[in-house]
Amino acid sequence: MKGDGEGMKMIKIIKKENGITLIELLVALVIFSLVIAGTYRLFIAQSRAHTVQERVVETQQTIRSAMEILLRDLRMTGFDSDSPDSKMDIVTPLIAGTDQITIDYEFDNTTQYSIRYRRHEGSLKRQLTTIKDDGSSVAGAEEILLENVEELNFTYGVDTNDDFAMEGGWVQAGATAGLRVVAIKARLTARPQQLAPEDQKMMSPRTLETAVTLRNLCMR
Questions:
Q1: N or C: which end of the chain has fewer CB within 10 A?
Q2: Are the beta carbons of 211 and 183 closer than 8 angstroms?
Q3: Segment 103-111 long-range contacts (CB within 8 Å, at least 24 positions apart)
């Protein structure tokens, strides 16, 4: 009988050491859930930050590409080959504006290009009109070079004493009347496309500003 009593005590002790309570299990589940939730939130935040950064870089590259196209056309402003075989005469090389500009130049002996840039409906748009020596013209469709544009601004460097050089600072379009424009400064601002309203602080606008000398107007 004595031996049986000691065996029962050992069994009770073993059960007590190996068991866990329901409360302990619930506490463990709560802690595990908190860890999983925190890890998930961290993953989402890092993924969003990575996506935002990709959008910002993409916007910067797109602004540069659009600006390069704009500068390429601006450099051609007023070009006239002065060839005896040319039938084109560039009468109005430039129509200055604040948020739009139109430039004309000779493409070949029988063709003139007239190109307009403007900000319209939040986009930077470019339109090419081809003018032939017989007076006919064909206006192409407007192409969108950049979206989410918040600012397109042109300022101008003018020649005030007919020495074909820029005097003074940059002036607005309204101050160019009667003066030769020899340089143009273009300022372009665009915002990355937002994924959610809370991304606005992380997606601040990006601005690129560049000036170009109009070699075909300041060397005549």
A1: N
A2: yes
A3: 103/73, 103/74, 103/76, 103/77, 103/78, 104/77, 104/78, 105/76, 105/77, 105/78, 105/79, 105/80, 105/216, 106/79, 106/80, 106/81, 109/81, 109/83, 109/85, 109/133
Query: Rounded to an integer, what distance in angstroms lies between the CA atom of residue 67 and that of residue 146?
Result: 10
- pLDDT the model gives residue 191: 87
Closest CA to 43 of 51, 54, 55, 32: 51
Over residues 102-132, the pLDDT tens digits come to 999 999 999 999 999 999 999 999 999 999 9
* H-only helix segments in 19-146: 22-75
DSSP strand pairing (180-190 vs 206-213):
antiparallel
